[in-house]
């Protein structure tokens, strides 16, 4: 009985994972920059229509993103999008990081199924929100 259930679970997992590239699966299963960071006002927080939310923390020095992290209560695709978004922004200037779009994140991840594309929008919007909050505190 247990063997049949294990086989069924394995089959379902393989079907789900087959919709994603190796890069996306890697970022889902081993997310980079995951975890909270001490807040100093450089935080972006977005909740999508789907109910998933993502929060991105930035440590900025001389207008460069020195350190970045994220947390999400979302699905695996939101985790992958947050992971890739933070990897793309790390070490870049805040202005260059504002140029990171959902299309770029999806290209780097090898694409998502259509019903998961919004996860890249969430992640990049949270990044842009954090950068804009930083810029507003500098005024």
TrEMBL record:
InterPro entries: NIF_FeS_clus_asmbl_NifU_N (IPR002871)
Matches recorded under Pfam families: NifU_N (PF01592)
Membrane-spanning parts: none
Molecular function terms, GO-annotated: iron ion binding; iron-sulfur cluster binding
Domain NIF system FeS cluster assembly NifU N-terminal: 20-138
GO biological process, any: iron-sulfur cluster assembly
Cross-referenced Gene3D superfamilies: 3.90.1010.10
PANTHER family: IRON-SULFUR CLUSTER ASSEMBLY ENZYME NIFU HOMOLOG (PTHR10093)
Protein name as annotated: Nitrogen fixation protein NifU
């Amino acid at each position: 009985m247990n063997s049949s259930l294990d086989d069924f679970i394995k089959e379902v997992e393989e079907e789900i994972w087959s919709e994603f590239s190796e890069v996306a699966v890697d970022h889902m299963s081993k997310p980079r920059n995951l975890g909270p960071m001490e807040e100093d006002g450089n935080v972006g927080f977005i909740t999508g229509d789907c109910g998933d939310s993502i929060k991105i923390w930035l440590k900025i020095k001389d207008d460069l993103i020195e350190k970045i992290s994220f947390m999400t209560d979302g699905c695996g695709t939101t985790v992958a999008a947050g992971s890739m978004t933070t990897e793309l922004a790390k070490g870049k200037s805040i202005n260059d990081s504002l140029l990171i779009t959902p299309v770029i994140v999806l290209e780097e991840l090898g694409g998502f199924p259509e019903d998961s594309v919004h996860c890249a929008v969430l992640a990049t919007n949270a990044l842009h929100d954090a950068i804009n909050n930083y810029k507003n505190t500098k005024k």
